[in-house]
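JOB MANIFEST
job_type = single_chain_structure
chain_count = 1
residues = 269
[input]
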Amino acid sequence: MSKKFLWWNELSGQEVTEYAKECDIAILPLGSIEQHGPHCPTGDDSYNAIGMSELIAKKTGAMLLPCPWYGAHPYHHWGFKGTIPIGYETHKALIKDIVKGASNAGYNKFILLSAHGQVPSTTLAVHELGLEGYFVLSLHWYDFVRDVHGEIFETPMWHADETETSVALYLFPEYVDMSKAGKEKGEPLIDGRFIGSPGGHLGGGQFYYFEGTFSRPEYKELKLGIVGDATLATREKGEKIVTALVERVNAVIEDIKKRYPPGVKPPVR
C-alpha cells in the first residue's frame, strides 16, 4: 500500500481484509482525555499513544486500529475539570469489542499500547480475551522502558511532568506551550517511599502505583494539574525515551512474526 501509515479508518474494508494476509498484527493505541496542566493538551495521552504506535507501525508494518481517545481513570483523577473519564468496565468492554471486530477481518495478533494509567481495565481485557482464544499483549509505555528512565530524566515520572511533557515536545510540539509549564507536588496519604512511580524502578517494600488509594482527589489538591516538574522537559529527552520504546516493541513484533506467520493463530486455546 502507498499509505504513509496503515490506519484502519483510512482504508476500505476490502483493503483492511486483504492486508491481513500480509500482516495480521494490529496495534490498538489507548489514551485518554485528561487535563495535563496548563501547558499540554487534554488529549496528551492519546496523542502519545498514536504517535508511538505510528513509529512502531512504520518499521513493522502492523495495522493501526483507531484510538478510542477516552480512557479509564484511577479514582483520584475523577472530578478534575478537563478530564472525561470512563469506568473500568466500560473501557474493558470497549477493548474487547474492538479486538473481536478486528479479528473478524483476519487479524490474529493484537498489541494494546497504552499511554495512560489504566492497568486494571487493560489487564482484565487481555485475560478475558485469552479465555476466548484471542492473542493479546498489553503494555503501558512508561513501564516498558522503566529501566532506562533514570538515564534520561532528572525526576521520577508522575503526571504532566518532565517525562510526559518531554514526550509531547517530541511527538506533538504544536500543542505544547512551555511558557505555561510549572511544577507542583501532591502529598500522598502514606509516606511516598512506599509507592513506586509509573515508569520507575519498583523497589522492595513498594506498592505498584495502582495497588492502593494513596492519593487525595487531584481537583482538591492541585492548582495546575501537574505532579512533578514540567519545566525540566526537553524534546531531546522525549526522543530518547520514545526511541527506546519503539525499538523494544519492534523486537516483540518481529518475534511474533517469526513464530506465527500471517494466518497462523498463536495457540492461546
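[summary]
The domain at 8-259 is CATH 3.40.50.10310 (Rossmann fold).
The longest helix spans residues 235-259.
exit_status = 0
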